[in-house]
């Protein structure tokens, strides 16, 4: 065995495994991972009339707000693709924020580096503006990137988080999550019909 073959075998042995793919999530060109949160696929028969701050809606999915009235009803709704949507019916809202937090599975953040782009596609109705925030915990630090989604009435929107300008250590990455912050939610019936997250390598400049 020559030196070249030996080095090649060593490189293959040490390369991190590719993350598992969800065949139901369309990938962008060169995409190596795609995910749809379980709340849109697993029927937990979710139905609650007054969701308190920090309520866990599904595994890795929580609702946060600072409204003392807690007039927020949460329901899973049946649809075709994906099989479930999420409806937030907001009554009187005297708080400053309403957000949905989604923990990314390890397969999504393991091996994530500044050479990646994370893409979010969201389809929703009843809301004009949603702020999407990607949080990366590495060691004691948290890097945060924010993009604006404007799905319109029943429309779709896309956010791309380019990690090329962020400074973080892939080896120290321990957790990643997404926050979706709803602008002016009072009196709205917000229906999230689709939400997918993918990642791909960024082009070298």
Describe the structure.
With 205 residues, the chain is mainly beta. The chain has a single domain (32-201), classed as Jelly Rolls, CATH 2.60.120.260. Helix content is 8%, strand content 45%. The protein contains two helices and 13 strands; from the N terminus they run αβββββββαββββββ. InterPro entries: DUF6478.
Describe how the helices and strands are arranged.
Layout: H1 3-14, E1 33-35, E2 47-48, E3 55-58, E4 61-65, E5 72-78, E6 84-90, E7 98-103, H2 106-109, E8 116-125, E9 130-138, E10 141-149, E11 155-162, E12 173-182, E13 189-201
Antiparallel strand pairs: 1-13, 2-5, 3-4, 4-7, 5-6, 6-13, 7-12, 8-11, 8-13, 9-10, 9-12
**From the coordinates shown, what is the CATH architecture?**
Sandwich
* CATH fourth-tier homologous superfamily: Galactose-binding domain-like
- CATH level 1 name: Mainly Beta
Order of helices and strands: HEEEEEEEHEEEEEE
Q: End-to-end span in angstroms? A: 37 Å
Shape, per Cα inertia axes: globular
Low-confidence stretches: 6-19
The tally of structural domains comes to: 1
What is the number of E strands? 13
